[in-house]
Structures are given as structure tokens and as C-alpha cells.
Fold:
Amino acid sequence: MKNVVELKDVTKKFKGFSVEHLDLQVPQGLITGFIGENGAGKSTTIKMMMNLLRPESGDVKVFGLDYQTHEKEIKERIGFVYDSNVFFEGLNLKDIRRIVAPAYKQWDDPLFYKYMEQFNLPLNKAIKTFSKGMQMKASLAIALSHHAELIIMDEPTAGLDPNFRRELLELLQEIMMDGKRTIFFSTHMTTDLDRIADYIAFMRNGELVFNKSIQEISEHYAIVKGGLDLLDRDTEQDFVHVHRAPTGFQALTNNVQAVEDTFGDTVIIERANLEEIMYYTKGEKHLV
Ligand SMILES: Nc1ncnc2c1ncn2[C@@H]1O[C@H](COP(=O)(O)OP(=O)(O)OP(=O)(O)O)[C@@H](O)[C@H]1O
Structure:
């Protein structure tokens, strides 16, 4: 599988927080969801992918190219979608088209107007009058109109109502149909990812916990439920985290096979969703 983004041994230090020796690949043609609690380093990582932040050391390659020598080419092929209005807020979409279109070799006017209609966006109304959802759609329409191969989004569904969120997710799936595009987006809405993501990159405290396909995650991780009498120092080795209650234990494992070997059918093994994986891996050191 080809990777469109490759971060190798990347380090960025702030006072009180750092991303150190980060290796992260974004596979081509798939949707990768980027998860992690507040302050995990997701935006910092996205900014490094966009060359909005320079790492102190390490390599950032997009489409196999370096920003130092190919910044313009890389940026032409990326659509960066944000919810906040990055354009002068008094402008309308007609003005924005006039400014943005000449900047892209691949700009496609008919496609731009097609999306304006499909997304129900007014061309003559100032962006400052747009709702958050409309701003998101406007930003996405612009990215699509220059045929961006890689769409990077920082929390695109935050603050959107459930219907709009669903609409946006369907749209993202739709634009993946041609098989050439790649989407990478950060989110706290793990249920969105259960719905559309192919890959999940999970970050915690500036470190990558894992970057796996949804299928690998569901094969490795599971919630295990059973009686407290089954737990001892040896059997607990199979778990990432164990939660005890008077009625029994509930635990997260990253090795379903080992649990089956140890416990047989004395426990219940259920699929772990992303929220459970994030919750139970909090504070745990040895994970993958
Ligand atoms: N320019 C900066 N200067 C100093 N510290 C920074 C800067 N940018 C980010 N940080 C710090 O880096 C840490 C990670 O922030 P980042 O925004 O990357 O996290 P995040 O995972 O995107 O969080 P959230 O989900 O809340 O958006 C935070 O502690 C933040 O305060």
C-alpha cells in the first residue's frame, strides 16, 4: 500500500509538551481518523503535515515530496478543511473563487459551481453570515474544486448538529468513490469513525499508540467480562486495563487469542468500540 504522508522520527517540542520521534503513515485511497484526547498532539501533528509548523528534527514527506523543495506542488494537491473562516469574513464565495481559483493549476470552475448547488451555498452572501456547517461545506467545496488528492481536516464535525454531521460523513464517503482520494481527519466523535473510517491513528501524550486498520483493531481488541474469581496476577497479563466491580470485572484486551486460550468460555468477549479502547488505554503504558 502506498502512503501519501510519511512522518519519520519527527520531533516538535513546546514548553510542557512534545511530540517525540513520531512515525506516522497515511495510506492512500482510504479514510484515516485521527483520535486522542484533548492536548494529545493531533493539531500539532496536522500542522506539521501542512508545513504550518516545522519540526525540530525528522522527516515530513507528502506524496513522497519534501516541503523544502516542493511546497507549492504539495499544497496544490492538498485540501485543508477547517471549520473556522480563514478567508476575510466580509467576502462572499464569488469573491473567494476569484482569489483562490488562479492559485491552483487544477481549478475546475464547473465543479465549483456544481458543489455550490449541491451544498446549497449562496454565492453572494458574506461568509460571516454562514453557519459553522455552511463554512465547513464552503471549505470542502473549495478543496474539491481544485481536485485535491489529499483532504486533511482538523475536527470537521465538531459543533455540527447530528443531521448535518451525517450528511457530511456521507459526502466524505461519496468523494472517496473514485479510489484516488485520501482523507485524514481528527475528531473526538469516535462514532463517526465507526461509520466511515478505514484506518485509525490514535495519539496520546504526543505519542502514537497505534495506526491500524479498523479490521485489525476489531481483531486485536475486545472487551472481556467475567467473574472476579478468574483474575490473578497471571491471567491479568492478557489485559490492557481491568475494571473491577462487585458483580465482576470488565477489561480491555489487545490480544483476543490469548484471552480465549486463558479463559476459554468462562468469560464473555465482546467487540470493543473506539471509545472503549480510548477510555481503557488511558494511563496505561504497554499497549500495542
Ligand atoms: N504554539 C504552541 N506553543 C506552545 N504550546 C503549544 C502550541 N501549540 C500547541 N501547544 C501545546 O501542545 C499540546 C498539544 O496540543 P494540540 O492542539 O496538538 O492537541 P490536540 O490533540 O489537537 O488537542 P484537542 O483535541 O484539544 O484539539 C497542548 O498542551 C498545547 O497547549
